[in-house]
Amino acid sequence: xxxxxxxxxxxxxxxxxxxxxxxxxRMIMGGCFRRLIKETETMxxxxxxxxxxxxxxxxxxxxxxxxxxxxxxxxxxxxxxxxIGLISVNAWNAFIKNLGVIAAGTGIFAAVYQYHxxxxxxxxxxxxxxxxxxxxxxxxxYNQWNPSLYMKTLRxxxxxxxxxxxxxxxxxxxxxxxxxxxxxxEEAEGDAANVRAACSSEIPVDKKRTESGPRTDTGRAARxxxxxxxxxxxxxxxxxxxxxxx
Length: 246
Description:
The protein is an all-alpha fold.
């Protein structure tokens, strides 16, 4: 059965397909990372779900007055969750690496079998060269679209936005809030001055009352004195009458 596969060049096709899929996978991964890196320049208005999630989470933590001590670890946690379609970046990268292993393993095994069982040296060299070419293509694609370099650049760009642009915006908002809070006592003091000014306009009336001196109840005292004098007179008349009768 394996001889049939060798005779139909199935192993060569497998090696070529592994190399082709690996190169295309690297191109797709590199394109996705380039778009994400470009979006970090306008991260405040980005539509990328991953970047919006990072920004929103950081804003929520900052609004709770919680300081993010290790921004790099915070960003790395979300970058590791990045996905290309439905596949995570780490799984995508591992799959492409496995394609290189499959291409090399298929070429070596087929070449050894072809040489020891069939005894065809030409086919053996062709299989080895095919596997080597596929692995070289995958290596060049890796160097051209290095995922580690892209992830580092993306992490630095996001950290730059969170550490500079977003933090500066929060600082400006805090300063505006402090300035607004400082204006409140001044406005209250101005209102109090207006109230005092309004009250001072009524002072002349009260002043007239105070200038007229304290009010004294002279009428009542005069009546009391007159009643006392009448009582004394009445007593004098009664005594005079008693003395006259006696």
